[in-house]
Write a structure and sequence with these properties.
Elements (H helix, E strand, L loop, with lengths): L3 H37 L2 H29 L1 H25 L2 H24 L9 H26 L13 H20 L4 H5 L12 H10 L1 H29 L5 H20 L2 H11 L1 H20 L5 H29 L5 H29 L2 H35 L1
Length: 417
């Protein structure tokens, strides 16, 4: 007889290891993506590099969710990493051929790794006890810290590792990303047995035909907690993606050579990624202890503060690093609390579809931010970009406040009746 608690412990250990490996792979490529796009194209479209990755992640949520519902988490997660590995290799080929279309095709496929990373946090709560959902989810988010912090630093080293083979400095990191992501996918394909989603009854069997994205959307819109959870993750992704995507380009505008620029970018993004992942266990503990909604509000306030810090930093690397770290903290709070809220606010048979829907909406929000960020910086400035992001954060604060008032009014009317 299967022991869910034993399977959950094994699942968490495996996800922890593969998140470290994939974290290095994703961060190594992401560190230089905008720079490579700016080098082959121009600054005005460099934000589209991040957008292509985010759109790829968003759209991959559709087949990933279908695979989860029919086959479980194991083949879905592995497929995401394998697709991303192919995308990373395409980026290297594109740089060698100076092909912009091939470059963006590679970025698009590279988004499969982001989709898999997002799905991994849901795999962590398939069998988690209700009082521990926030902490188990945040444990997997935190696991990415070890790899993601090392990734930007590894990018500086790996950039020169293939110079003797004619691979450009800004493209070489993607070769190593491909190897790491393929390794993560292979590890999951071999060792994620039994599948936690199948054991939980949210995948395979009857659940495979209980409803897709359309039905999940109807349920999410009908349930205020689920709507709030999805909204929180979308706003967090929008603000984080827009500001983070253009920070390397802003640093490059100081006039440093490519190697020195990579070193500064590596340090700043390491702080950012630390904010995103290192304090995730704290966010998970707060989510379980204080509740999902207070932590969402905290995340929005942090996003607003980050925009103020980064927008007034100029080329002060220390202040930029601080601003990007606070930006990561805001994203972490809104993502951990939002994902936990979504996972527990929909019926089990629609959980995988609702989770995929939330990732799709997050991805589209991030893609929109990335696409607009390059144009905003090109036409105006990096400071203007952070101002626009701050306005989006304020709108989320208003939304959270209105949601709370609406919920209190609803509870009061039910009590009166």
């Amino acid at each position: 007889m299967l022991d869910p608690s034993r399977i959950q412990r094994r699942t968490l250990r495996l996800l922890f290891v593969t998140q470290i490996i994939s974290g290095i792979g994703v961060a190594t490529g992401s560190t230089v993506g905008a720079l490579l796009a700016a080098d082959l194209a121009r600054v005005g479209v460099s934000g589209l590099a991040g957008s292509a990755v985010v759109v790829g992640a968003a759209l991959f949520a559709l087949p990933a969710t279908a695979i989860v519902r029919r086959r479980g988490r194991r083949p879905s997660l592995a497929a995401g990493y394998f697709v991303a590995s192919v995308g990373a290799l395409l980026v290297v080929v594109a740089a060698l051929r100076a092909s912009i279309p091939l470059l963006f095709a590679g970025f698009f496929l590279f988004g499969g790794a982001t989709a898999a990373n997002l799905q991994a946090r849901y795999a962590a709560v398939d069998l988690a006890p209700a009082p521990l959902r926030g902490r188990h989810l945040s444990f997997i988010v935190w696991a990415t810290t070890l790899g993601a912090i090392a990734g930007p630093q590894f990018a500086a080293f790996s950039g020169t590792a293939l110079v003797g083979y004619g691979v450009p400095t800004l493209a070489a990191p993607f070769f190593f990303s491909a190897l790491l992501l393929a390794s993560a996918g292979l590890g999951l394909l071999i060792f994620l047995r039994p599948d936690p989603a199948i054991v939980a009854g949210t995948a395979g069997g009857r659940s495979a035909g209980t409803g897709g994205m359309v039905r999940a959307l109807e349920v999410v819109l009908a349930r205020a907690p689920a709507t709030l959870g999805v909204s929180a993750m979308a706003i967090g992704q929008l603000v984080m993606s827009g500001v983070m995507a253009m920070t390397p380009v802003h640093i490059k505008s100081a006039g440093h050579d490519a190697a020195h620029t990579l070193r500064i970018v590596g340090v700043v993004l390491s702080f950012h990624i630390a904010g995103m992942y290192a304090f995730a266990p704290l966010m998970g503990w707060l989510t379980d202890r204080l509740g999902r909604r207070p932590v969402i509000f905290l995340g929005v306030v942090l996003l607003l503060g980050a925009c103020g810090l980064a927008g007034t930093a100029g080329h002060d690397s220390a202040q930029l690093a601080a601003g990007l770290m606070v930006l990561g903290l805001g994203w972490s709070a809104s993502t951990v609390a939002g994902a936990t809220l979504v996972s527990e606010s929909v019926p089990a048979e629609l959980r995988a579809s609702a989770q995929g829907l939330s990732d799709l909406i997050m991805g589209l929000a991030g893609a929109t931010a990335g696409a607009l960020s390059g144009a905003i910086v090109s036409l105006w400035s990096y400071a203007t970009l952070t101002l626009v992001a701050a306005v989006a954060s304020v709108l989320m604060v208003v939304w959270v406040a209105l949601f709370r008032l609406r919920q209190q009014a609803f509870e009061h009317s039910r009590g009166a009746s």
